[in-house]
Structures are given as structure tokens and as C-alpha cells.
Amino acid sequence: MQTIDDLDVAGKRVFVRADLNVPLSGTDITDDGRIRAVAPTIAKLVAAGAKVIVASHLGRPKGAPDPQFSLAPVAVRLGQILGQDVAFATDTVGDSAAAVVAGLADGQVALLENLRFNAGETSKDDAERGAFADQLAALADVYVGDGFGAVHRKHASVYDLPARLPHAVGLLIATEVGVLKRLTEQVERPYVVVLGGSKVSDKLGVIDNLLGKADRILIGGGMAFTFLKAQGHDVGSSLLQEDQIPVVLEYLERAKQNGVEFVLPVDVAVSATFPDLKTKAPVADFEVVAADAMPAGKMGLDLGPATGKLFAEKLADAETVFWNGPMGVFEHPDFAEGTKAVAAALADGDAFSVVGGGDSAAAVRILGFDEKKFGHISTGGGASLEYLEGKTLPGLAALEN
């Protein structure tokens, strides 16, 4: 793959496909990690004298403008991070975009409105998607792919547009791919994988592929209860995917055959009700119980302290760690301890640690950990998982051609 160092961009219109899909509370950005992640690529293009046109999706609008998903707040924050004004186009391929792009001088930056306000961006129809890519291509001379969080999507701006323009990868994607190769091709051992999140079905592919690569797999979050149920334990009213139990049993058996250690919770923090994440009021019936003695009518919402300690011990000798998915409902203080235990073990350890995007990356920031203590914090949870599953990612394949 070409990188931006291989391009002559002075005086050229450079279309940067970023991933600026940041969490919003109204118009307030609650985590600007993805904006900061792409800023070095944009800054480098600015310094080289390019006219930089940044584009991204935000949320899941239904192919038409929706004010709650506007990128306008992102334009302001991007300008603050870059230290220069960022012009904002109120559409993607309409009159505003054309005027804003035409008004750019060398070294200036514009942000287009949400790509997904156009049905062609996410269309399953190749012709409709291609027509939208043609409109985007008319705005630019060069394409730079740097939205790692979207490279697993066959979308117009990710998959079709690179074929229409000279193209290269930005600094962020180059870094992400290098990191993922360290998790798949150049692994230093012991290699420990920590998986959490709500649904076991979301992680089956990556477990399947890693059973031949990892030395140890630690399971937390809501997905742990399907594993505990598969082992014959009652899980109360915890999140459970009963239809996945046969697959889980097969994986546990394969792990045993391959010498891969599976580590499940030994105690769990439970409650009869889901906590209020707005008020964060203390949960009255919060208690910690053994993982094999969960009471009926109560749901597991976090690892217990014994499991937090166990997981830290299982991470202590690791040379490589991949972590994807929180260990509990970390947004509430009563159920954040399991996620904190894993984050602290990685921050304090010597392993090359990769935090696999999404909620895990948000948890590290929200819980106040220093990002520099981790080897790499990914910007793309879904993309990282699909890469580790061994899948071809459409956006990367387009940039390799």
C-alpha cells in the first residue's frame, strides 16, 4: 500500500476518508479520541500544501439528513485540535460542498457533512454506490484512506472511491495495520486475549480464529454468562444467548485440545435491576456472589473482585495482549471495577497491549487511564475484530489495489 509519503499533494485537493464517528451528548462530544487519531494525517497534508477535504459518517442516519447526526460539532473540535479554522459544508456533494471546496486555499481544511445523509454511501446496489462515489471523486484529485473504523464496510467512500482516484493510506491506518500484524504474524508470547462486551455471538469469529494463535483467553462482560451456562451453572436473569451454547462448548473443547487456557469469572457483581446510567445512583441490592452460585432473579453486571485479581494474574506474564470489550457496565461506578482491573493490569504491565477500539477504548478514557500506558488504542473495534477473524476488509483491499 502507498502511504501519504509517496504522494505529491502540494496544491492538490486531497479527500481524506476519516472515522469521526464520535459519541455525542446533544452537540457535546464526550470522547474526541477518533478526531485526535486522524489529526496527524490531516496536519501532515496541510504542511505539504494540500487542500484537505475531510469526510466521515456519524451514527446511523437512514440515508437522509438528520440534525442529531450532523458533523458540525466535529468541525469545531477538529479546528481546535489542528489550530486552524475548518470550513464546514452543510451537505456532502451539493452546492455547499462544491462552494466550500472551491474556496479552499493550499493548506486549508474543510469537513463535509455526514456521508450517510446520502443513500448511495451505504447502498447494497453497486450502481447506486458507484454513482455517489463518482460525485465524491469530482471534489478531489487524490484519495487518502484513514478511517480505520470503517474499513470493514463496503461503502462508497471506503470501497468505491479509491478506485476512482490516486490513493494512499494515512498515518492512522498504516499504524493500525502494523499493530494487527503484530497480533497475527509476529506474535511475542505468551499471547493473552481478553474478550468482553454483551454478546458472545459478536466474538465467535475471533475466538474461532484465535484458538490456534492465543495462549490464553479471558472471558468477561455479558458474554461470559453464555460460557458459564454452558458449564452447567445457573446465571439468574443475566444476559444469555442460549442458542450459542453448542458453539461455546465446541470452543471450550478445542481450546483444551490446542492447549489454550480459557479463563472465566469465578465471582460476579449482581443486581436485580439494571443501574441508572444517567443519575449513577448507588444500586441498593448490589452484591458479589460466586459465579457458580448466582441467585435467581439477579443479573451479572460486572466481574467480582476475585475475578479481577485472577485476570490480573493471568495477564502478568504476557508479552502480547489484545483486549476487546468491557468487563461490565463500566459507565456505572458500582460495576466498573472489573474493567478497571483489566485496564490497570495492562497499564502497569510490560506487555505490548492493544485495546481494540469501541467501548474498550472509551472505557480506558472515561475511567481516567493514561493512554500512553498502553501499546496501542485502536480506533476501530469492528474492523479490528474482523481482521483478527482472518476476513478480507473491503476498505483495505481497495487501498492495496
From TrEMBL:
In short, the EC number is 2.7.2.3
Asked if Kinase is a keyword of the record, the answer is yes
Q: Record's InterPro entries?
A: Phosphoglycerate_kinase, Phosphoglycerate_kinase_CS, Phosphoglycerate_kinase_N, Phosphoglycerate_kinase_sf
User: Where along the chain is ATP bound?
Assistant: K203, G300, E331, G357, G358, D359, S360
Q: Which UniProt keywords apply?
A: ATP-binding, Cytoplasm, Glycolysis, Kinase, Nucleotide-binding, Transferase
Reaction catalysis annotation: (2R)-3-phosphoglycerate + ATP = (2R)-3-phospho-glyceroyl phosphate + ADP
Q: How does it assemble?
A: Monomer.
Protein name listed in UniProt: Phosphoglycerate kinase
Originating species: Streptacidiphilus jeojiensis
Gene symbol here is pgk
